[in-house]
Design a protein that fits this description.
single chain; 244 residues; elongated; mainly alpha; Cytochrome Bc1 Complex, Chain D, domain 2
Length: 244
């Protein structure tokens, strides 16, 4: 072989080897050199975390579903970050709200819980949502009175939920045993204050035009609802005792 032809052959071989190496680096299934797999516990993207852990009950974009909408500006105005973080992390025992934090048996780290809370606040809170008004506090400051609560219910709630809370033309029963068994007293209070706008239920200002519920009235009607749960539980226990 002539020296010139041999030299050209060597150059072609080197080029082919270089091309092959480049093709291998970008071939399907071959990650680039600077790629890295993010461990599940290090994922802090709000959209991902909310979609995987919250949207199933609280709805896409926090608009509500089986549970209250977390994107409701009224809810975010009455519930502070510590409260939302505590409930998200620890859940609510005895209800449909599970614990998501690892230290409570869930899958999320404290940093991920924080990312969810801050994402909700950044995306959906409206600082001026309750400007000029004084909403009832998120948590009750004193126990409500169920007897007074019956009168409060009659004035503010019965037009939609019917006599005795058993359902009306525009809203369902709120004394249903299955419903009351799945919600806490705090959940009832939060719903009375923030409403369920996605279901057409107004907040504490809209049940009677120009007559918002006071903090005491909210506590009283929640006490009345809780008493209905207790009555249903006692009745079920008596029936079970009779069967035995």
């Amino acid at each position: 072989m002539k020296p010139r032809a041999f030299f050209i052959g060597i150059c072609i071989l080197v080029w082919m080897l270089a091309a092959a190496c480049g093709t291998r680096a970008s071939a399907p299934g071959q990650p680039p050199e600077n790629s890295a797999v993010i461990p599940p516990a290090k994922i802090l993207d709000f959209d991902f975390l909310y979609a995987r852990n919250c949207a199933g009950c609280h709805g896409t974009d926090g608009k509500g579903g089986a549970a209250i909408g977390l994107g409701d500006p009224v809810y975010l105005a009455i519930a502070d970050d510590a409260t939302i973080g505590r409930v998200t992390g620890g859940g609510v025992p005895g209800t449909a709200m599970p614990a998501f934090a690892q230290h409570s048996g869930g899958m999320l780290t404290d940093d991920q819980i924080h990312a969810i809370v801050q994402g909700m606040r950044t995306r959906w809170a409206k600082p001026d949502a309750l400007a000029g008004v004084n909403p009832p506090p998120y948590a009750a400051t004193s126990p409500g009175n169920p007897q007074r609560g019956a009168a409060v219910y009659g004035t503010f709630c019965s037009s939609c939920h019917g006599d005795g809370g058993r359902g009306g033309k525009s809203a369902s029963s709120i004394v249903d045993a299955s419903y009351l068994a799945l919600v806490s007293d705090q959940n009832l209070r939060t719903t009375v204050i923030a409403g369920r706008p996605e279901l057409g239920a107004p907040d504490w200002r809209g049940d009677v035009a120009g007559k918002p519920l006071s903090a005491e009235q909210v506590s009283d009607v929640v006490a009345w609802l809780a008493a209905q749960r207790d009555n249903l539980t006692s009745s079920a226990e008596r029936q079970a005792g009779g069967i035995r």
